Automatic annotation (TrEMBL):
The keyword Cell inner membrane does not apply. It comes from Streptomyces rhizosphaericola. Signal peptide: none annotated. This is GntR family transcriptional regulator. InterPro entries: Bact_HTH_transcr_reg, Chorismate_lyase_/UTRA_dom_sf, Tscrpt_reg_HTH_GntR, UTRA, WH-like_DNA-bd_sf, WH_DNA-bd_sf. Keywords: DNA-binding, Transcription, Transcription regulation. PANTHER family: GNTR-FAMILY TRANSCRIPTIONAL REGULATOR, MANNOSYL-D-GLYCERATE TRANSPORT/METABOLISM SYSTEM REPRESSOR MNGR-RELATED. CDD domains: WHTH_GntR. SUPFAM superfamilies: Chorismate lyase-like, Winged helix' DNA-binding domain.
């Protein structure tokens, strides 16, 4: 029986190097330790810097390494389990001790894909920005898009801008109540704003969790949350279906 085409494909050099580096991280380096610079590492393992860079990027994606501003590349601690479920996403206004803390609120048009989910067209919506802390570390940044129809009594609240207005939007959303939700997760790259708040470099791998909340027969809000891929392991306790995306096709798997 002949070998398949897949079996005959040679393993990329950087992939083999990734395995070697992973073993070295276990035996020669401690959590938090700074790795030598790329030139020294390439010389140590006898590879080109381009090959080394590919292997390091893969290890960062897998959560073994972290790139930190002004520090360099360090050995990452084990990923922290972060629950993503209805019970973890209350709208109480971000009092001290809660996982999500409101940062700001502005009124502006939602991105096209979000506007389509909300059914608001090009009109402005409330955009609440929140940060999620776990064990004292910022692990996620969220943009929560809330149409005016979901918080009709907001105008009666003296909350002109910033954190005060963000809390007011969350309180009104809590009063509305959420009847259901759907969620998708995909790999992305950190935007400049998210990277700064999460202590990452722009373009670093992140997990993007998009959640649509339903109430009163329509979409009440849409959340786009960016999680650090190097430190977070997302868990889904009470979520329903898992969305699997492949090009333009979408399938539902329970």
């Amino acid at each position: 029986m002949g070998t398949t085409q897949l079996e005959s494909v040679q393993e990329p050099k950087y992939w083999h190097l990734k395995t070697v580096l992973s073993e070295a991280l276990d035996s020669d380096f401690a959590v938090g330790e700074i790795l030598p610079n790329e030139r020294d590492l390439a010389a140590r393992f006898g590879v080109a810097r381009a090959t080394l860079r590919q292997a390091l990027e893969q290890l960062e994606l897998e959560g073994r390494l972290q790139r930190r501003r002004g520090v360099g590349t360090t050995v990452a601690p084990p990923r922290v389990g972060v629950a993503v479920s209805t019970s973890q996403h209350e709208w109480e206004g971000g009092v001290a001790g809660e996982a999500w803390q409101p940062v700001d609120c502005v009124s502006e048009a939602a991105p096209g894909a979000v506007a389509a989910m909300l059914g608001t067209g090009s009109g402005p919506v409330h955009v609440v920005r929140r940060i999620r802390d776990t064990h004292g570390q910022a692990v996620a940044a969220e943009l929560l898009y809330v149409p005016a129809s979901s918080v009709p009594d907001l105008s009666a609240i003296d909350a002109p801008s910033g954190t005060v207005r963000a809390r007011a939007v969350l309180r009104e959303l809590h009063r509305l109540g959420v009847e259901g939700q759907d969620r998708s997760v995909e790999l992305g790259s950190a935007r400049a704003d998210d990277a700064r708040e999460l202590d990452r470099l722009p373009g670093a791998p992140v997990l993007v969790v998009t959640t649509r909340y339903f109430a009163a027969g329509g979409t009440a809000a849409v959340s786009v949350a960016t999680y650090r891929a190097d430190t977070c392991r997302l868990t889904f306790g009470d979520s329903g279906a898992l969305e699997i995306r492949h090009d333009e096709q979408q399938r539902q798997a329970s």
